[in-house]
Amino acid sequence: MSVAGPLHLLVVFLAFSNPTLAGSSFCCPDDRALTLLAIARGVHPPNGSFSDPVAAYTHVIQNASRRMDAVALHTACFRLAREAYAQIHQEALKSLNIGLFPPKSAVQNLLKLYPILAHCPAGSLYEVPLPIARPIYTPPRQAVELGLTGWVDLKLTISDSGKVQSASIIDSSDKILETGVIDHVLKFRYPSSSHYLGHRIQRDKLVLRIETNYFHIAKAKGCEWEEPSWSAAF
Question: Which of 34, 37, 46 is nearest to 10 (CA)?
Fold first, then answer.
């Protein structure tokens, strides 16, 4: 992954009108959380404080210390891991002219190249096969009421046509988050076996993690924020 030039912020994050929802200690994502997430997505602020993407991702990993910042942390970790993997496989990257994504088996080598990755959640450092179509995830009502975030791990069987034939829960951080998750993933579609990416998908016992993050809960609780608009100036 490379960046051709500095990126400049065109709009300022808008302040929230309801940073703390009535009757709850849950706070809507603030400007800091949005800024960290924007940086994690590969955006440089106008002051040019980051010399390259690695410096930007490292900044996010070092500063994403709150539950609210977990989405930015996960994003920055994966992007930095992808950067590290691309460095290891530079020649393959050039010859194939495609993006490379680290598999789980590559994690130890990535940690040697960038020790900062040791501060990342383990599952954020490698590629998890993603569906090509999925419905919008809605957290269980009880999780929203409690402000509960976490994860559910599932095992899927994918047909040659890309449909999810079966799904079962392996483990979860909280039983509440398991509510409705199987019905959710049964609507996913993966590449068919004839698709050019189809060979990359494990079709039997594919493990998938569904995460309920702070931003999911915030939206369900009625928080509103202005998504930043960005433009590159090269």
Answer: 46
